[in-house]
Design a protein that fits this description.
Alpha-Beta Plaits; DNA polymerase, domain 1; 4 domains; four-stranded antiparallel sheet; three-stranded mixed sheet; 13 helices; 20% strand; globular; disordered C terminus; magnesium
């Protein structure tokens, strides 16, 4: 999806259309962080994960909008319903992004390009939003292609174009290459896929660890990862970044109660319980910590989850701090504690 959160806000609020807006953060107080920026704001250099103070410096007339995550989740579900008209092999990456395997498409269209065009048209007509699609023979290349002509783009990389495409790709576009790794590569005079291709697999592993094997294969257009529609859920949670710092334990506990409600609703939706509750805290200086508690048996009720999060908070001595973000996550789903046996069932 194109600038998903910001585009939903512009769709639902005509006064935001054509104007630079950011979702998340605040121009007052300590500000917070940009969750999404409209394309009008991006022209000024505003990007997601940027401190909102920086966003306002770059674009003084930017409009700050409070996130409405329940609305974004609802829209995301409608987008998935459109996907399911064409295939059930859908691997969601987030609310606004997914892989689709259309090798065997439900309507029998037989053309990935035509399917992408129809999906984009349905999203535009039914949801008044735009999406960009990347089409190719594997996940990596399709993902890169989807970003090439945003917004409202469609890019097809044919099988015989893949290697040439990868050779010309800047190293910072490669999966797993963050800012630090990109800088290391450039110090080694590695600027493009073609530069990486000159190194042996052993060279890449020596310099970049196990990920070097991925670089070696992907620069040659080899990515055999399948679209996985039923990936095992390892954890489930929710968090919130606040417009103003929380400075009292009462404020923090009240927000933890709200977050715990969201977490328990999601657990019920997926029929999950977990043994480990993790509390995430980000302070006003961007320092971040996590604390966790494990139970003898899986839990999923609001009282236990909220209570555990509050106890974990107290252990961090929260009286003289300023908190910008809180989160609660459950993990170790339906697992028995070590040392306990479980009877197997035959079907």
């Amino acid at each position: 999806m194109d600038a998903f959160y910001a585009s939903v806000e512009q769709r639902d609020n005509p006064e935001y259309r054509g104007k630079p807006i950011v979702v998340g953060g605040s121009p007052e107080g300590r500000g917070g962080v940009v969750a999404a920026a409209s394309y009008e704001a991006r022209k000024f250099g505003v990007r997601s994960a940027m401190p909102s103070k920086k966003a306002q410096q770059l674009c003084p007339h930017v409009i700050f909008v409070r996130p409405r995550f329940p609305v974004y989740r609802e829209v995301s579900q409608k987008i998935r319903e459109i996907f399911h008209r064409y295939t059930d092999l859908i691997e969601p990456l987030s609310l606004d992004e997914a892989y689709l395997d259309v090798t065997q498409d439900k309507p029998g269209i037989g053309s990935a390009i035509a399917i992408a065009q129809q999906i984009k048209q349905a999203i535009r007509e039914e949801l008044q939003l735009t999406a960009s699609a990347g089409i190719s023979v594997n996940k990596f290349v399709a993902k890169i292609a989807s970003d090439m002509q945003k917004p409202d783009g469609l890019t097809f990389i044919a099988p015989d174009q893949v290697e040439d495409f990868m050779e010309k790709l800047p190293v910072e576009k490669f999966f797993g290459v963050g800012r630090v790794t990109a800088e290391k590569m450039k110090r080694m005079n590695l600027h493009t896929g073609a530069d990486l291709k000159r190194l042996t697999e052993n060279d890449l592993v020596q310099h970049f660890g196990k990920t070097g094997r991925f670089y070696y294969r992907i620069v040659r257009g080899i990515d055999e990862r399948e679209v996985q529609p039923h990936r095992e859920t390892k954890s489930l949670g929710a968090e919130d970044t606040f417009a103003f710092d929380l400075t009292t334990v009462d404020e923090m506990n009240a927000e933890l109660d709200k977050i715990a409600v969201t977490v328990t609703e999601r657990l019920k939706k997926y029929n999950l319980k977990g043994r480990t509750v993790t509390l995430k805290i980000k302070y006003s200086d961007f320092r971040q910590i996590t604390r966790n508690q494990s139970f003898p048996h899986p839990v999923g009720d609001l009282e236990t989850i909220a209570g555990a999060a509050k106890q974990l908070l107290l252990k961090t001595e929260p009286d003289d701090v300023k908190i910008r973000l809180l989160g609660i996550t459950l993990s170790n789903f339906n697992e028995e504690p070590p040392g306990e046996s479980r009877q197997l069932t035959l079907f």
